[in-house]
Amino acid sequence: MKFEPKIVAFLCNWCSYAGADLAGIGRIQYPPNIRVIRIPCSGRINPLFIIKALRHGADAVLTSG
Amino acid sequence: MQKLTAQIKDAAKKLLEEKKVDLVIGFAEGSLPLRGTPFFARTSEEADKLTWSRGCENNLANYLRKREDKVAVVAKGCDVRSIVALIKENQINRDNLYIIGVPCNGMIDRKKVNAMLGGREVLAMEENGDTVVLKGKDFSETVNITDLLHSSCQDCRYGNPVVYDELMGELLPEKGEDDFADVKEFAAKSAAERRAYLAKEFSKCIRCYACRNACPMCYCEECFVDCSQPEWIGKSAANTEDNILFQVVRVFHSAGRCADCGACERACPMGINLRLLTRKMVNDVKELFNAETGVNMDDKAALATFTANDPEPFLVKE
Amino acid sequence: MSTKPDKVGAVLVVGAGIAGIQASLDLAESGYYVYLVEKSPAIGGTMPMLDKTFPTNDCSMCILSPKLVDCGRHLNVNTITNAEVVDIQGEPGNFKVTVKQKARFVDPEKCTGCGSCAEECPVKVDDEFNQGLNKRKAIYKQYAQAYPNAYAIDASKCLKIKKPKACGKCLEVCQADAINHQMQDETKEIAVGSVILCPGFEKFDVSQLAYYGYGKLPNVLTSLEFERILSASGPFGGHLQRPSDGKEPQKIAWIQCVGSRNCRIEHGYCSSVCCMYAIKEAVIAKEHTHYPLDTAIFFMDMRTYGKDFEKYYDRARLENGVRFIRSRVFEVMEADDGSGNCRIRYSNEDGSIGYEDFDLVVLSLGLEPASEMVELAGKLGLELNKFNFCEPPALTGVATNKPGVFVAGAFSGPRDIPETVMQASAAAAASAADLASARGTMTKAKEYPAEKDVAGEIIRTGVFVCHCGINIGSVVNVPEVVEFAKTLPGVVFADEKMYACSQDTSAQIKEAIEQYGLNRVVVASCSPRTHEPMFQETLKEAGLNPNLFEMANIRDQCSWVHMNEPEKATAKAKDLVKMAVSKAALLEPIDGVTLDMNHDALVIGGGVSGMTSAINLSKQGYKVYLVEKAETLGGIANRLRFGMRGEDVPAFVSDLVAQVNADANIKIFTGAEITDVHGFVGNFETTLSSGEVIQHGVTIISTGAEEYKPTEYLYGQSDRVMTLLELEGLLAAKDSKVTGAKNVVFIQCVGSRDEERPYCSRICCTKSVKQALKVKEINPDANVFVLYRDIRTYGFFEEMYREARNKGVIFIRYTVDNKPVVESGAGGVKVTVTDHVLGVPVEINADVVGLAAAIVAAKDTNTKLSKFYKVPLNQEGFFLEAHMKLRPVDFGTDGVFMCGLAHGPKNLEENISQAKAAVGRACTVLAKDSISVEGKSAFVNKKKCAGCGECESVCPAKAVQVDPEEKVAVVNEALCKGCGACASSCRCGAINVKGCTNQQLVAMINAL
């Protein structure tokens, strides 16, 4: 079976999350492996969230803001 | 050493007699050589027990947090760096602290001595310039001091206290920059090799948290590892991954705050190479933020400052 | 019997570009109802078309879209799109406005913006938003983030509108029943108290200048076309390519002053913004390519005069390697090698002719006034200048010749975004000043039922999964997601909805809340960025705290982007719902915070800016404390004699002083400084050097700046060498030193644009030209020389530069590494400068040397205030605004504003405008009865806090401080923006953010 990575993304509400919305509006197709968590600012990303996600089985974590 | 000891005693007595401080924290002789033990002197008589030797390894910054009384501390280079960091973090009131600065050219690692002597017990020690004579029941060995120093002391570039109210002895010559060769060597290994090494090291961890207790900077009321709402990582020592993450986060939490005093590693009963992680962090903080812990009173917290010139290797560029 | 009609507490804003949006928001937040009339189907204006913005390189859309949403959703901004103002009658305080609204053919109330109609529409039309570089449909949304988030039909292109029996495909797919091809134009009458005109600008029509080859050569583009090419939402998705053949360009040239500084076509003015946008486009273009891109800018004078612009120019030149070629371009022709490249023929400064080939040539088009406004201006009796811009009467900043009618943005003259925003806030303040008696009479506020207490209740979550017509349902198996949701812990009800955002669904959600006793609501539909506030409104109407709501974005971030993988998209939708449900279970009600508010203002600095602010604040009905360090009011303007446009500055200043003195609402403290400050927005307590303590709600910093004391060019050694301010005094006094002077030399950039002060002082070029003309006026036979680096007579000042040249003022350019030399000589001073055309030294025996000395920050004062009010300074010691582009008079710290020279060099007119802008912004705070915040702020668990102060040092809003007594961090909820930087930097886990706690986020991670 093909490797299907599970990716957790922490996206800033004001830019990257908006960018992800925009990708939708533009119907830009990308693999459905990403699970987005919306945060108020990239400053909200506690390094522990990343560790928690990885420890919980995420194959990768994307933080963007 | 004797000269320094005498000077420290004098300074401490004077401070106590003149009621400039309520307490002097320093070292007293332990029951065995190289077993300097933290000592609290509240009277001039008690101050007579103060000493200075190659066994005064503890970081005394540990005893200075959130005190209401006026305290003097006998502090070597690494102690002072931690003190400076703690002052900046509102943990020590500089106005209530008197720093008796002692230039330090390294403390002797008992583990190294034991290894060298193959378990024979040292009963006395004499320092002669660059060498030291270790004497036991029926032996006497002369060894280069540098070979016996704690690894943290071998790497130390700040033996001289950077801040003090009174200096004991003379300042030592400045040392060159740390090249972090050990860190670079480890980084050069493959990911699999590094992973294997860490797994091996941290499988030893018993989660006694001695490292945390020994560290002057680990003072959270509740450590993240003890937190249950949310539970960040597993609490059992059986899981090496959790053990590694505990250390990774502990070290990360000391980013820009760790003076690389080596207290954590010295405290570890399992002999885990903890400084591999702390030094990696110290090296990163220096390269990424151009910051070193506690080397002056002015620098702001490394992780709370931003300049346009900070390298940002984590960024995915367009 | 006739009585004077009462004033109307509403304002008409014409044009919904960034100026219109800013003015509307400021007014609506200050207690006035706003009618925002926009001719296109969406608000936004030109800014959404731009890729990045100088000098911060922020994404234009990213910084604008929060304002679009705020404006669009504002209860007191009535946005009327597709509409034009046809007439305005009446008098200040009471205008009757006739607005003609064209049929949109789509009901924006019903349209959900899903886009199915456009997919079906068979008619392709050039997309104006993308400058015609690609196609859109006849039913269209102007751009992705447009507000209203609704489609519109292009009546001239739609088949069905032309022939009612034709097509109709859009009708078939629209499940919201929003399209109506029979919709008619409407005419509305509205009553307002004042009017703000901000219709923006049009780009210069370059077809009239054939020598640039536009339209003939496919690889000659306009600057706006190039913006769209760079934009990730543009026709090529941000990939830099030639539109003609898709080739990746290796060399790109920009040609400046296309349609600017050109008298032959009656465009004698400088368009002010093109130098900066060309540099920006060059720098950004280089960022876009994975190969080294050659960029060259062909220019006459580099006019990077704005705040931080010079540094941007320096970086582009020195670090990014953008080439700058000082030249005159004659012609752009096709290269003769069949490559499609363009060849530029130009003349260098020394007169030599050069040729160079480029893959692309970008024409930096100038700005023209909005053409449709010219007609309206005629009807209203509005005076326009010779270029048809609505230039404000001198020293008013934003007024027009018609009382009650104000102007902002590029309609009053070419200007960039920060100045436009500044003018918008200024116009808001100016238009509100006369309506103070009607404040709050037209604004609306909504009433809600009392909130249910859910504390201690068992979690009862309701999940609503939206089909969004076919947008979600055609990809994601919605019924399956609903069934899955029912199995999740805490979920007691789950259902599917065709359109979760429709009116009837809102009623159904309220019913479900009632019927099933829901205390948490999850909606799985589109983006919370656009729809969360709407659903939260539903919760409030149902008596639930709006923060007991969570959204799963299964459209924008799921069905739309995984259209070909329905199963995986369904699995993802389930995950997203599970995450939302997990978080929802941990949500708690968040109460807004309300604090008392002091409605007085403190203005620090009694120069023109400070006095202008004070007078305007007083007119709005607020009490003002005006503090001035010197013994007299007036500041540095006391030393000005001639206004840039010929105004009598001394008369103006003394009139201002008289007004301030006569105003009972203004309490003046001269000879006083600030010695201590406590508190925060709404509750400041400021101590003066006199010991007096002032309680105030807002602070405006207008501390001015100083003139640089030169150490060069024999200043201080020869009495013939003087600064421009000193020379101005002599000129006004007609001192024999200047009236008798045969040779007068002006030296520019003295203390500016050098290593120590790498900024342009902005006003000195114009001032020198003004004084040069004065010298000529006094003594036409005098020889006047201006030694300059770039002449920066931006905007309409360019006219004055031309006049000076016509009158024989000699302009000699020098380079920074070969500055003029001033030596004492017999009977005067000898100035030696190397002529830029001839390349040989020229010696001038000057009787008077005027030094254009830099404007320097009042560093000591500013540093002190910076600490007191927790507001930052830039490297040069000027105050640093919250955002260079969109918050030019605000600080990150709420309730503190700035204006005038304290912000950076600018002329009197601009200072006045900025002073009003600061009032405009301050009034948004002062107009509130109390300070209320949403409450999504940080909070501290005192037991865990070690008081280390890490949170304090990372907080960008200065909202958290370690209490010196308790030794724990304390959050000021009035200031906290809820960004969470504190929470993520807290090692002890002692600080957290309401609505986004560690537990809630970890619950989402654990749900995976």
TrEMBL record, chain A:
<dbReference type="GO" id="GO:0051536">
    <property type="term" value="F:iron-sulfur cluster binding"/>
</dbReference>
<dbReference type="InterPro" id="IPR003813">
    <property type="entry name" value="MvhD/FlpD"/>
</dbReference>
<feature type="domain" description="F420-non-reducing hydrogenase iron-sulfur subunit D">
    <location>
        <begin position="7"/>
        <end position="65"/>
    </location>
</feature>
<dbReference type="GO" id="GO:0046872">
    <property type="term" value="F:metal ion binding"/>
</dbReference>
<keyword id="KW-0479">Metal-binding</keyword>
<dbReference type="GO" id="GO:0016491">
    <property type="term" value="F:oxidoreductase activity"/>
</dbReference>
<keyword id="KW-0411">Iron-sulfur</keyword>
<dbReference type="Pfam" id="PF02662">
    <property type="entry name" value="FlpD"/>
</dbReference>
<keyword id="KW-0408">Iron</keyword>
<keyword id="KW-0560">Oxidoreductase</keyword>
<protein>
    <submittedName>
        <fullName>Methyl-viologen-reducing hydrogenase, delta subunit</fullName>
    </submittedName>
</protein>
Automatic annotation (TrEMBL), chain B:
<dbReference type="GO" id="GO:0051536">
    <property type="term" value="F:iron-sulfur cluster binding"/>
</dbReference>
<dbReference type="InterPro" id="IPR045220">
    <property type="entry name" value="FRHB/FDHB/HCAR-like"/>
</dbReference>
<dbReference type="Pfam" id="PF13183">
    <property type="entry name" value="Fer4_8"/>
</dbReference>
<dbReference type="InterPro" id="IPR009051">
    <property type="entry name" value="Helical_ferredxn"/>
</dbReference>
<keyword id="KW-0411">Iron-sulfur</keyword>
<keyword id="KW-0479">Metal-binding</keyword>
<dbReference type="InterPro" id="IPR017900">
    <property type="entry name" value="4Fe4S_Fe_S_CS"/>
</dbReference>
<keyword id="KW-0408">Iron</keyword>
<dbReference type="GO" id="GO:0046872">
    <property type="term" value="F:metal ion binding"/>
</dbReference>
<feature type="domain" description="4Fe-4S ferredoxin-type">
    <location>
        <begin position="249"/>
        <end position="279"/>
    </location>
</feature>
<dbReference type="GO" id="GO:0052592">
    <property type="term" value="F:oxidoreductase activity, acting on CH or CH2 groups, with an iron-sulfur protein as acceptor"/>
</dbReference>
<protein>
    <submittedName>
        <fullName>4Fe-4S dicluster domain-containing protein</fullName>
    </submittedName>
</protein>
<dbReference type="InterPro" id="IPR017896">
    <property type="entry name" value="4Fe4S_Fe-S-bd"/>
</dbReference>
UniProtKB/TrEMBL annotation, chain C:
<dbReference type="Pfam" id="PF12831">
    <property type="entry name" value="FAD_oxidored"/>
</dbReference>
<comment type="similarity">
    <text>Belongs to the HdrA family.</text>
</comment>
<feature type="domain" description="4Fe-4S ferredoxin-type">
    <location>
        <begin position="936"/>
        <end position="965"/>
    </location>
</feature>
<keyword id="KW-0274">FAD</keyword>
<keyword id="KW-0004">4Fe-4S</keyword>
<dbReference type="Pfam" id="PF13237">
    <property type="entry name" value="Fer4_10"/>
</dbReference>
<dbReference type="GO" id="GO:0051539">
    <property type="term" value="F:4 iron, 4 sulfur cluster binding"/>
</dbReference>
<protein>
    <submittedName>
        <fullName>Heterodisulfide reductase subunit A</fullName>
    </submittedName>
</protein>
<dbReference type="GO" id="GO:0046872">
    <property type="term" value="F:metal ion binding"/>
</dbReference>
<keyword id="KW-0411">Iron-sulfur</keyword>
<dbReference type="InterPro" id="IPR017896">
    <property type="entry name" value="4Fe4S_Fe-S-bd"/>
</dbReference>
<keyword id="KW-0408">Iron</keyword>
<keyword id="KW-0479">Metal-binding</keyword>
<keyword id="KW-0285">Flavoprotein</keyword>
<dbReference type="Pfam" id="PF00037">
    <property type="entry name" value="Fer4"/>
</dbReference>
